[in-house]
Amino acid sequence: MAQFQPINSKELQDILCQLNSSSCCLDILPTSFFKKFKRSWNQPCSRLSLTSGVFPEPLKTAVIKPLLKKDSLDKTQMNNYRPISNLPFLSKIIEKAVFHQLNEFLINNNCYDVFQSGFRQNHSTETALTKVTNDIRLNTDSGNMSVLVLLDLSAAFDTVDHAILLRRLENWVGLTGPVLNWFKTYLENRKYFVSIGNFTSEPIEITCGVPQGSILGPLLFNIYMLPLAQVIKNNNISYHSYADDTQIYIRLTPGDRGPVQALGKCIEDINDWMCHNLLQLNKNKTEVIVFGAKEKRLDVTTELQSIQLKTTNQARNLGVVIDTDFNFDKHIKAVTKSAYYHLKNISRLLCSTDLE
Fold first, then answer.
1. What is the number of alpha carbons within 13 Å of residue 331 lying toward its C-beta?
2. CA 68, CA 75: separation in Å to the nearest integer?
3. What is the DSSP letter of 85?
4. To 10 degrees, the CA torsion angle through 33, 34, 39, 41?
5. Structural domains of the chain ordered from first start
6. Which among 6, 116, 174, 236 would be 20 to 30 A from 319, CA to CA?
7. Residue 150 to residue 24: CA distance in whole angstroms
8. CB burial class (10 A; 0-12, 13-18, 19+) of residue 21?
9. Reverse transcriptase domain spans which residues (predicted)?
């Protein structure tokens, strides 16, 4: 794709309806203004044309707002906050238009990885979990063992290299001309500053990573990760991904330990690929679980330890607690405990309100 198509008035109105109504200090006009008068927007359609191949410089600055992860946490500890990135509303309008056209191009040209469920229509954590769970269930029903490895990446979205990403867009997706240049100008010269109350920091340049809080960021990350699938396939290992959460797994027939060696080699190849693409595989947080007949798990665990893979009895996978028995009892207990905790807090809040 060498050229974006200009968006018409109807497409612009649809985009405005789809976008969240929140505003930030970078917005010249409130978001509600744009939405209220969306039917009167005719001239801005030409100004928002993407045929120039340049992303507007004033829309590249983000404001970071620290948000306490939980009300019960110590407010004086910086680690208890998460940074929330806000971008100008106008930038989101342009990004949404680009997202629609790029997404359509990726679908029409079969660019998406078949086993990537993150940030795709009709795909979710549910589809990723269903696929992997079903494969492991079928292995167990056939009398085979399964080994599931949950790969953990450190701050993957923040370490994306812009030069590598542009090469992905050109060589793996097929973008050229003004479209490729648009993404180049979209990524370069970005800045952010922190805002707390009436205080703001000096702007700092962003030299890597996909823009946090952006519409295109997750889609660009998927594109950045496209070659990883080929690395795993070359080792004949099954896999499924959701954004930066990648699950790789093998089937073990009785007496066959060959797949364990292939799994170890695959993890090393993945680690090498990560290093070459400025990503970091966190081996200390990568978890390994063995499924199958209880009396056979110890043998498989011993085999895995021979290639420096330490197993665990349970882990949290895309929000679901799974264990070696694969009966989801521990997940049900975790959900019940969490529900009880929230109901208790709601009850306490209602009682305090009544007293007032």
1. 15
2. 7
3. E
4. 120
5. 1-112+162-207 (no CATH), 117-158+214-325 (3.30.70.270)
6. 236
7. 37
8. exposed
9. 48-322
Side chain identity at 293, as an amino acid letter?
A
Look up residue 5 and give its DSSP letter.
P
* CA 207 to each of CA 54, 72, 163, 341: distance values in angstroms, whole numbers, following the listed order: 19, 34, 10, 42
109-119 per-residue burial string, b: 16 or more CB within 10 A, e: under 16: eebbbebbbbb
Q: What pTM value is reported for the model?
A: 0.89
Separation between Cα atoms, residue 178 and residue 173, nearest integer Å: 15
Can you tell me which residue has the tokens 């629609």?
100
pLDDT digits (tens, 9 = 90+) for 106-140: 999 999 999 999 888 889 999 999 999 999 999 99
Torsion of CA 176, 44, 103, 151, to 10 degrees: 100
Q: Which amino acid is at 116?
A: Q
Residues 167, 171, 173, 177: what is their CA dihedral angle, to the nearest 10 degrees? 80
Each residue's pLDDT tens digit, 262-294: 999 999 999 999 999 999 998 888 999 999 998
How does DSSP assign 45-67, residue by residue? HHHT--TT----GGGGEEEEEEE
Q: Give the whole-angstrom CA distance, residue 213 versus residue 187.
A: 14
Is 22 strand, coil or helix?
A: coil
Joined tokens for residue 318: 């895309």
